[in-house]
Design the sequence.
């Protein structure tokens, strides 16, 4: 099954500041620039989740006010891990992948994309979640297709060929 095929699981389009946990097979599609996405997958339960965060840290932006948790990388990781935990998924039972954080505008400066990725990785590390694969940084956006029931993620860097992201060290 290819990411653009008309057969297979139903498609769900994920916008900025959204997250989804899929209990049924779903093809989740999103496009990232400086934003960051984290996918979590439980092979044991066959469920997956993904978010599309716009900014790195909620405490810096919201001053303790109520907010959309998926707008910020750190709070999105927390919400995503809590949702998986409520379904009985343990940290050791997760496959985690991280994407995004492009810096197309000012390549020689620390960008919001860099900060988004760093914030997501720090939040994951705080929970001892091991990242199995990532495709981050650079100066082009990415289109992701995440298959919630297999954990597979296909990445198309904008204006470049499509590829499947594999585990670190996999051939």
Sequence:
């Amino acid at each position: 099954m290819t990411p653009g095929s008309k057969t297979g699981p139903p498609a769900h389009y994920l916008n900025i500041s959204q997250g989804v946990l899929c209990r049924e097979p779903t093809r989740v599609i999103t496009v990232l620039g400086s934003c960051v996405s984290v996918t979590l997958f439980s092979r044991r339960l066959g469920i997956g989740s993904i978010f599309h965060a716009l900014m790195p840290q909620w405490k810096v932006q919201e001053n303790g006010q109520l907010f959309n948790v998926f707008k910020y990388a750190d709070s999105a990781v927390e919400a995503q891990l809590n949702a998986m935990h409520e379904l009985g998924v343990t940290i050791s039972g997760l496959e985690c992948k991280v994407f995004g954080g492009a810096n197309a505008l000012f390549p020689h400066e620390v960008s919001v994309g860099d900060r988004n990725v760093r914030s997501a990785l720090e939040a994951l590390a705080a929970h001892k979640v091991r990242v199995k694969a990532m495709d981050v940084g650079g100066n082009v956006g990415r289109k992701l297709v995440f298959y919630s029931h297999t954990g597979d993620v296909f990445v198309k860097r904008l204006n470049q060929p499509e590829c499947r992201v594999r585990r670190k060290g996999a051939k």
In short: The first helix runs from residue 58 to 62.
